[in-house]
Amino acid sequence: MDIVIMGAPGAGKGTQAERLEKSLHYTHISTGDVLRKEIASGSEAGKKIAAIIDNGDLISDEWMLSILKQVVAGIKGSIILDGFPRTVEQAEMLDKMLAELGRKVGKVIEITLPDEVVVARLSARKQCQLPSGEIKQIGPDFSLADCQAQGGEVFVRKDDAPESVMHRLSVYHKQTEPVLDFYRKAGRFEEINGNQTPDAVFNELVSVLKA
Ligand code: AP5
Ligand code: MG
Fold it and tell me: How many CA atoms lie within 13 A of 55 on its CB side?
């Protein structure tokens, strides 16, 4: 059973999806991470993507789906999608694409978080680029000391600049919130409170998944 984790920017999708990957053996696909890897490769496509992401806008549905298709095609077990779908069109395309691959979205879980907590979290967020190129998030599961001990470099995501965060939030409310209704109507939707400790969020997530 594949699952989709939704939520506003900074709701904790990546933090929780990584934990689920480690403990329940899902493969975590963050479309944001996939796009950032393309940017890091220095490709022409990456340059176009950077201009869109840094501003906090969305990559076009067709482009995003074609990128995602290539990633999902190589995966055998269950997946956790983090950051996709972000529009109702993407949700419809996803059902079709997964059906073609003999897959299905089993559960959709939204991690809820008030806007003011989003702004506070993202203005404090820091990332660590390890010498291998891997990017880790500094937070409860990987400390600043871990980053320094592994020779990493600390940086801030360009789209965490205050004006981008405000824009990402408005894009989320306008373009992504309708996706929640799409799944609510389809009867495969659950909501959990993201405004608690990472361990408490994780425990709620696991109970929803096991229900
Ligand atoms: P993406 O990378 O998906 O960004 P996002 O959705 O804005 O979400 P974030 O990654 O910022 O936050 P998160 O929910 O993962 O939270 P996290 O765990 O990091 O997308 C980036 C861009 O790519 C988009 O804007 C768009 O341009 C493009 N894109 C991606 N997908 C697309 C698509 N499908 N279609 C079109 N374009 C697409 O946590 C945040 C912070 O809070 C961290 O510092 C963390 O340590 C901390 N934290 C986490 N949990 C807790 C907790 N419980 N308590 C306290 N702090 C916590
Ligand atoms: Mg993320």
Answer: 9
**CB of residue 59 inside a 6 A radius of ligand 1:** yes
Nearest atom in ligand 1 to the alpha carbon of residue 171 is 25
Q: What is the fold of 2-114+167-210?
A: Rossmann fold (3.40.50)
Residue 137 Cβ < 6 Å to ligand 1: yes
pLDDT digits (tens, 9 = 90+) for 124-147: 999 999 999 888 989 888 999 999
In sequence order, which residues have a C-beta less than 8 Å from that of residue 29 and are 6 or more positions away? 68, 71, 72, 75, 79, 80, 81, 82, 84
Model confidence pLDDT, tens digit, residues 77-117: 999 999 999 999 999 999 999 999 999 999 999 999 999 99
Global model pTM greater than 0.90:
yes
| Residue ranges per structural domain of the chain | 2-114+167-210
Q: How many Å apart are CA 146 and CA 134, to the nearest integer? A: 13
Distance between CA atoms of residues 105 and 95, nearest Å: 7
